[in-house]
Amino acid sequence: MSTDAFYTELRRIYSEDRLLTKNAQLVPYESDGLTSFRAKPSGVVLPQTQDEVIRTVKLCHKYEVPFTARGSGTSLSGGSVPVENGLVIALNRLNRILSYEPGQRIAVVEPGVINLKVSQRAAPDGLYYAPDPSSGPVCTIGGNVAFNSGGAHCLKYGMTSNHVLGMKVVLPDGELCTFGGSSLESTGPDLTGMFIGSEGLFGIALEITLRMLPKPERYYTLQAAYDSLEKAGNAVALVVASGMLPGAMEIMDRLSMDAANAQLGDCYPKDAKAVLIVELEGTNEEVEAEKPKLHAVIEESGAHLIDAAKNDAERSRIWTGRKSAFSAVGRLSPDFIVQDGVVPRTKLGEALAEIDRLADKFGMRVANVFHAGDGNLHPLVMFDGREEGALHKAEELAGEIIRLCIRLGGSITGEHGVGLEKRAYFGEMYGEADTDFMQRLRAAVDPLAIANRGKKLPSAEAPALTSRGAHPLEQRGIVSRM
Q: Is the model more confident about 174 or about 339?
C-alpha cells in the first residue's frame, strides 16, 4: 500500500480545508464518547456530497486503507474510534433532509442529519420521528442506523430498525446498493435490517428513508418514588403484566437523581432510593381509561410517593432531567463508564440488587439510569482516572455487570453496540456457530475488512488501544500494549 499515492488521489477530491492530516486537526477524532479508547487516524476527510463519499470509499478499497465513518462521535462503546493510521470519513456535512412527504409519513435524509431535526421538521404536520436517544439533540441518523439506537420510548415504538424503511448505501468496495424502499411492506431478504446495527462493518448509508408517526394527542407522565431500587424494578414487571403498554418506563436511582437535581434544580424527590417514570400516551379516551389502572398498579408496587406532571412544562422538566443524567453524573465523578446490558423485565429487580452487591464488593459507586420498559440497563460506574488502577477496577466491575446480564438471559448490549468495549464478552453471549456465521457474512460483504476494522466481532483484527489502564481485551490476549 502506498500512503503517498493514496493521499495524492484524495487531494484531487478534497481541498486542503477538508482533508485533515495535522496532529492538532486529528485529535478531536481520536475517540468517541467512550474516551478510554483512543487511536490516531492518518487523516480525516469532510465530504459534502454523496459522490465524494463514494469516490473516497473506492480509493480506500483500491489502496486497502481501513476507514471509519463518523457522525457526531456520541457512541459509548468505542464504535467510532478510528483504526490506527486509517482514514476517518466524517459525515456531518451530509446533513440535508432530501425529501419530506407528510401525506406518506416518510422522510429521506442524509446520514449527517441530527436526530432531533427530523422531528422538528415534521412537527408542523403533527408528526414526529419516534426513536429518541438521550443524545438526540446532537447524534446523527447515520450513527443511529449503525448502532440501532433506541431511547426512552422504545418500549412502545421499537428501535431505529423499526423506523427505517429503506437505504441507499455504499459498500466497502464502492458499490452502490439500495435496500428496502418507502413502503411498510417488503419482500425478499431483510437487507435493511441486516445493515442496521452492523456498526459500520457493511459500509456507509448515504440516504435513509424514515417512517414518521402521528404525535400522540395526549401524554400523562407519572413519577413514583421507592425506598429501594429493587422495588422500582419489580414495579416495571407489574405494569407490563397488567396489560398496559406505556409509551415509556424509565428508572433512576439516588445517585442519578442527585446528579440531575444538581444540574437542573429539584426535579426528583430527595427522600427516594429510586424513581420510576411512566408515561401513558394516545388519545384522550385511551389515556383517561388507563390512568386509574396505572395508579392502582403503582400503589400495589409499594411506591411511597406518586406524582403526575400537571402540564407540559413539568413533563418537559422530568424528561430533561432523565435525558441529561449521563452528563450530569460528571458533577459527581471526574470519570465514569456507561454500561449497556439488557435483562428480561422479570429479572430487573434481581439484576439491580446484584449490581448494588457488586458495587459494594468493588467499593465503587454505580449510578443506575435505564430504559426499564425493555430491561436496558445503563449503570454508570464512577471512578477517578487519575488514580492508579482505577480504570482497570471500573472496567472489571462493568464486565461483571455484563456477565450478570448474560446469566439472567439478557444481552451484552441494548443500543450502544459492541464496538471495542464489549468484544471480550462476545464469545460468552454467542456460540461458535453463530460467531462463525457473522464472520463469514462480514467477509462476504467486505473481504478486505476495511470498513470499521476491529469493531464488534471478536476476530484477529487489532482494535484501537485504550489510552490508560488495563482493559479486558488486553487481559484476554486480544490486544497487547505497545
A: 174
